Amino acid sequence: MSTMTPTTRTAAPHRAPSAPNKRSGRVRSASAALWQASPLTYLALIITIVLSVFPIVWSFIVASRDNSAVTAIPPPLTPGPNFFSNASRVLENTDANFIYGLVNSAIVAGCVTVSVVFFSTLAGFAFAKLKFRGKNALLLIIIMTMMIPTQINIIPLYLLMVKFDWTNTLQAVIVPFLVKGFGVFMIRQYAESAISDELIEAARMDGASTWRTYWSVVLPALRPAAAVLGLLTFMETWNDFLWPYVVLNGDTPTVQVSLNILATGYYKTDYVQVFTGTALAIVPLLIVFIAFGRQIIGGIMEGSVKA
After folding, report:
1. Using CA atoms, how far apart are residues 130 and 170, in angstroms rounded to an integer?
2. Tally of CB atoms within 10 A around 155
3. In angstroms, rounded to a whole number, what is the distance separating the alpha carbons of residues 85 and 103?
4. Going by C-beta distance under 8 Å and a sequence separation of 6 or more, which residues neighbour residue 230?
5. Segment 71-113, tens digit of pLDDT
6. d(Cα 23, Cα 17) in Å, to the nearest integer?
7. Angle at which helices 255-264 and 271-306 pack, to 10 degrees?
8. All residues at 6 or more sequence positions from 222 whose CB lies less than 8 Å from its CB, including other chains
9. Could you give the CA distance from residue 192 to residue 183 in angstroms, rounded to a whole number?
């Protein structure tokens, strides 16, 4: 009968963590510390926000007071009781036609924004995902148009408007800006990474035409970039002053032309009217940003997660 001898187990010696583990731990801790905001970061952000918001807030404050608030030292930081009376004076000013300017600016900015987003998404999709002869040369020409300042084109563009008999009409401030090279380039760059070639091929295998592929597959994927482009285009068109000032007059103004009449159309400038008109002109931009800002940010985050 065999006897079983118990086996002795020796405990494994305790091993100190290796140097690579210590190094990786230090790297992780350094990376975590890098993403933690310091008090200096919060201070810089607060200063940036105050410097960005203060001019807008101060415009509303002065718009609610009288002309003495413009030159007061220190400047007033609380609103006064005269905003609605000042606003009624601006809206009833027949020289500035401020209400007419607001309506015209809304029409111009809306038409230009819709057109720029539509044509930019079409062209951006074509340059990013379609193959055709001369694609790189055409894209280079579009990029070159972005290098030409608007001021250089004013004289030939004005002569063209005179030839078409479009001066003092809204067509003159809408038609020349229906397509923007920046929009085409921006959507093209976004479509390169946001839309896969396999997705386009799957749509074609299902029998979808190029237009159907754009409308049902490409356009929903481009929604984040299209929303950002639409907001930027609306703000740029709404705030544009030089070209409307050249081609329009006081009978068919945009809001910026009306503001210029308030500022320079009288022997003595009524600064309260100017600040009140500026505050009223800012309100539509704030409404647009509040209404669509969350959708734009949500769309950007959705696109980044999908990417």
Report:
1. 35
2. 10
3. 21
4. 113, 116, 117, 292
5. 888 888 888 888 999 999 999 988 889 999 999 999 999 999 9
6. 10
7. 150
8. 121, 124, 125, 187, 190, 191, 194, 195
9. 14
